[in-house]
Amino acid sequence: MRHNCTADEKPHEIAYERIVEKHLEMDPTETMTAIKVHLRRNPHLFSHLSAVAQCIGVYTVNDYIDILEFLIGWWRLKKLEGLTSEGKRA
């Protein structure tokens, strides 16, 4: 029987959504900068994670795209106000 990784990740997904949402409300520039730093810490992070996830059949590249598009919309990043120029670049 195959382990359902997706169901196990749902509570984490909800927690991350809400935590980042609150941080964006409190300090949008610092939050955007932190997201940028996290994603750039390992420039190959996405390709490594997607390769592993696809090999074990958990997620595909299209799933990652869907997740990112969902989060960008959920956090309303395109409409985010109160950013400094650094936050906008991030």
Automatic annotation (TrEMBL):
Keywords: Fatty acid biosynthesis, Fatty acid metabolism, Iron, Lipid biosynthesis, Lipid metabolism, Metal-binding, Oxidoreductase, Transit peptide. Its cofactor is Fe(2+). The keyword Lipid biosynthesis applies. InterPro entries: Fatty_acid_desaturase-2, Ferritin-like_SF, RNR-like. PANTHER family: ACYL- ACYL-CARRIER-PROTEIN DESATURASE-RELATED, STEAROYL-[ACYL-CARRIER-PROTEIN] 9-DESATURASE 6, CHLOROPLASTIC. Belongs to the fatty acid desaturase type 2 family. This is Stearoyl-acyl-carrier desaturase. It comes from Medicago truncatula (Barrel medic).
